[in-house]
Amino acid sequence: MTEFKLIYWPMAGRGEYIRLMLVLAGKDWQEVNDPTEVVKLTKGGQTPGFPAYAPPVLVHNGSLTISQTPSIQEYLAGLFGMLPESAAEVAVARSLNLTMHDFILEGNLNYHMKDFHADYLDQKEYTEPFIKEFCDKRLFLFFDYFDRALKQNEGEYMFAGLTYVDVTLYHLMCVVKSDQFCDWTKITQKFPKLCQHWQRMDANEKIKQYKISEKMKYKLQGYSFM
Predict the structure, then answer these.
(1) Within a domain: 176
(2) At what angle do helices 15-24 and 69-80 cross, to 10 degrees?
(3) CA 133 to CA 171: how far, in whole Å?
(4) Domain membership flag for residue 224
(5) Do residues 177 and 184 make contact, with C-beta atoms less than 8 angstroms apart?
(6) Is 90 exceeded by the pLDDT of residue 165?
């Protein structure tokens, strides 16, 4: 039996933050991506242990079920030595991580302003003014905060060493870089330290190998912050 099972839709999405943590820890994992199976296991209440409301869901050792991306990340960080050292820093890390996921959620919602359950491509004309305003204004407010947080530590990461918050920041920036409405050139000019962090993470050998492997099955969509 594989130690870790990830239940998630057939896309990068929120599951990619979890995949990257498993990659950096050198762990293999099994995936359930078939939508019918995902619904059966989550909304159908067929996961072991505590029920999960919605994907992504991580099953550990066939018995422990955890949902919500930030909770899964923090759990894995404890297993993989990717938490900050002190209890105070753990709390700060949680705050940072939740704010980063707030950013992703807010960005994603702008692509679905007419109908949350419909694809962006089916509501482009209605949603694009909201998307452009987010990418031109709100994005920079969030990035200014992330930049100030990163500058609190004089080293290469958010804390003394690599933590799960660095993983979130890295993939968040991958999402923004790939998004057709975000001005990556302007972002790199305004936030060079954030971009140096992204480059450092992107050069990680485990991440590089993952990105060219069959394990990375789903590419970023280039829209919808997924």
Answers:
(1) yes
(2) 10
(3) 22
(4) no
(5) yes
(6) yes
Q: Are 50 and 43 in contact (CB under 8 A)?
A: no
Determine how many CB atoms are found less than 10 A away from the CB of residue 199.
12
> Residue 24 is encoded by which pair of tokens?
């950096």
Answer yes or no: are the C-beta atoms of 158 and 169 closer than 8 Å: yes
Q: Are 168 and 17 in contact (CB under 8 A)?
A: yes
**Per-residue pLDDT tens for 42-69?**
988 888 888 999 999 999 999 999 999 9
Domain count, the chain: 2
User: Is residue 46 domain-shared with residue 146, that is, in the same domain?
Assistant: no
Answer whether residue 34 is part of any domain: yes
Examine the fold and report which residue of 80, 108, 139 is the final residue of a domain before the chain moves on.
80
Structural domain that includes position 20? 4-80
The full DSSP string for 27-51 is ---EEE--HHHHHHHTTTT-SSSS-
- How far apart CA 74 and CA 218 sit, in angstroms, is 23
The pLDDT tens digits of the residues spanning 129-156 come to 999 999 999 999 999 999 999 999 888 9
Domain-terminating residue out of 57, 80, 103: 80
Helical ranges in 42-86 per DSSP H: 69-80
Tell me the mean pLDDT in the region 94-106.
Answer: 97
Report CA-CA distances (Å) from 140 to 57, 135, 147.
31, 8, 10
